[in-house]
Design brief:
globular; Glutaredoxin; disordered N terminus; KaiB_domain
Length: 99
């Protein structure tokens, strides 16, 4: 029987956007960059376009866009904006920079 540690856990991230706005594109690019740097091989990004699926905003209580939601590992965390402040994003998602 193996026990999975948080180091090996796959992070499930959901980015809510509304179409291909500059902020949405920037947020996704920033998110991918941070994940490759800090969570390489241990993350999944799901992008949800609320122009196509507005009903999905309710489940995660999305009030502004773009919004990033960390589903796994728990607890759920949210960050609003284009994710351009790397330090704020890492602290918000509770990602510890690799030493």
């Amino acid at each position: 029987m193996s026990i999975t540690t948080t180091e090996e856990e796959t992070w499930e991230l959901r980015l809510y956007v509304a179409g291909q706005t500059t902020k949405s594109i920037t947020a996704l690019a920033n998110l991918k960059k941070y994940c490759e740097e800090h969570l390489k091989g241990r993350y999944q990004i799901e992008v949800i376009d609320l122009l196509k699926h507005p009903q999905l905003a309710e489940g995660d209580q999305i009030l502004a866009i773009p919004t990033l939601v960390r589903k796994v590992p728990e607890p759920i965390r949210k960050i609003i904006g284009d994710l351009s402040n790397e330090e704020r994003v890492l602290v918000g998602l509770d990602i510890r920079p690799r030493s």
